[in-house]
Structure formats: C-alpha cells, structure tokens
Amino acid sequence: MYYSSNCNLKYFLLTLYAMKEPHKFKKSLASKEKRLLWATTRSVLETDQFKHKRHGKKSKSNWNYFKRILGFLVWGAKISGFYKKGYENARRIEINHHELEFSNLPSNFDGFRILHLTDLHIDSTPEIKHSILHAVDQVEFDMAVLTGDYRSENSGDFIQILKPLEELSELLQKEFPPLAILGNHDTWLMTEYEESLKMSFLVNETIELARDGQKIIVSGADDPFSYYTDSALQSFSDKPGFKLALVHTSELADVAADHNYNLYLCGHTHGGQVCLPGGKALISHQKEGDEFIKGFWKMGNMQGFTSKGCGVSGVPLRFNCPGEITIFTLRKSY
Prior knowledge:
Blueprint: H1 2-20, H2 29-47, E1 50-52, E2 58-60, H3 63-80, H4 83-91, E3 93-102, E4 113-117, H5 128-136, E5 143-147, H6 162-171, E6 179-181, H7 194-197, E7 200-201, E8 205-211, E9 214-220, E10 243-246, H8 253-258, E11 263-266, E12 295-299, E13 302-306, E14 323-332
Parallel strand pairs: 3-14, 4-5, 5-6, 6-7, 9-10, 10-11, 11-13
Antiparallel strand pairs: 1-2, 4-14, 8-9, 12-13
C-alpha cells in the first residue's frame, strides 16, 4: 500500500511537471546531418566576402566601404548638434501590438501571441541590451521569434553577444521556447550554442507547434541577403494548414506565398534607421520595393510584416524611425 501510494504521488508530480514544462524541439538524425552540410557550406560563404543572392547573383560586399561613408554622417551629426538626439533615439524601443485574423488558424491557437524580435545588434551600443530587456520584460506572449542580426559587425568576434543573448533568452522562455534564424550579420557558429542560449535555430527547415492536438507550421530560412543557397527554397512546406515563415529579409516572400503561407515575418532594413521627417528611408539595403521597408505588406494572399528592429548598425543613431518589438495576437476568423 505504501509503495502504491508513492507511485501514485510520483505519477502525479511527473504529470504536473510535464504540464508546466515548455515544449522542446528535437532534431532527427537526418536533420542533424542536413545541418552539418549547411554549416560546411555557410562557413565557406562567410569567408569569401561576397554576397550570394538568388538566381546565381553574386556581388562584392562593400560593408567596410559603406561604414566609411557613414563616418561622414556621424561627423555631420556631431557638428550640427544632432548626434546626441539621434543616439538617444536609438535607445528608445517602441512596443507595438497587432491583431491578425486568419480563417485557417486552428481554434486552439486563437489568441496565440507571438513576440517578434529582429536586428538586435545587441553589442552596437552599451545601452541597447538594457533597452531590449526592459521592453521585453513588459509584455506577455506565448512564443518569441527572432529573425536575425544579433551582432553589430558582419564578421569577426561574436562571443561578446552570447551572454547578453542568454540574459534575453531567460525572458523568452514561455509556452514554446524561442525560435531563431540567422541574418547577414551572423555567423553559422551561433547555431552551436543552441543549448546555452535556450533557443532553437531554424536553418532551412520546418517544425510544427502543437496545442491540444492541433498544429501550426513554422518555417525558418537561412539569410538570403548574403548567404543564399537553393537549400533556402526547401525551408517551406507544402503541407496544408496555418503556416508562419521566418526569414531575415523579404526576398523569399514570393516563394512562401507560392507555398500558401499565411504570415511572413522579417526585418533587416531597420525601417531605414535614418529617415526623413515622415519616415521616408534614405537607405534600406533592399531592392524589393518601398512597401517592404517597414510595416505590413501583402504578397498574394499572404500577410507580410517587416520590423524596424531593435538595434542599430553602421551608425549608433536613429532619426524618425524608432526601434520596435512587436506582439502579434493571432485570431481565428469565422
């Protein structure tokens, strides 16, 4: 009788723990082998200083040259007295909420809240980490997704961002663990730290999120701005159902739309970061069209959104373009 009671108690405690334990995403052996092949390819692409684009396009990376040009902008801001204001603007992060309706959203996911973070550039200024942590700590959500660009530079050291990301990840542990993808400022080596970062990187792959027997599909692609390979096209699933695409840029929106995805989240542009009054971007680092620089856009029946991001790169300034974190509440339409 004593043994039976202890078994029942143990079963109850294990069941209670399982109910509270967040979901975990396990990778199959085939997935691990695919990751290894990707890492080998991406490591080579990261060393040749070229941007690899869709349709076989390849161009020399001019990031260092671009940074020298931006030095004149910093100089001009300082002598005109606008530098301090721009720097203060870069520290401010807006919290934006949006509700989106989808007819094919499973009823168990009605009210599901997704926190979208992108372009953290968490080592870009001494203050940006605290601004991001403060903003995230104020919001409620069920899962966080991060769409790339975690460090300031696009090559070199990245160890300095691991501890700040670990601090952030502690705030992101919700019903589902955070999902992340890489941007053009990131190195493939970051994916080796999934365990310590407590986040899962989606590298040209698809997973399913389950709630009481109902599922939604989430796909994540490797960065198409600088490190495109045709493997990115394999990111997207033909399975029916509600589908979310995570990509660093809007460059794969047509592919996702062709696969009947419902929502596409990206960043990269910073919304322009330095904009004219009214929000007109001076530089956006994308050629897909002005509608893709920031905010909502459509591609066929697919809803897209380009975040202005949290951090800064090139110059530690923002004008007429505040950083943001975004919470999307998914609703089922009837």
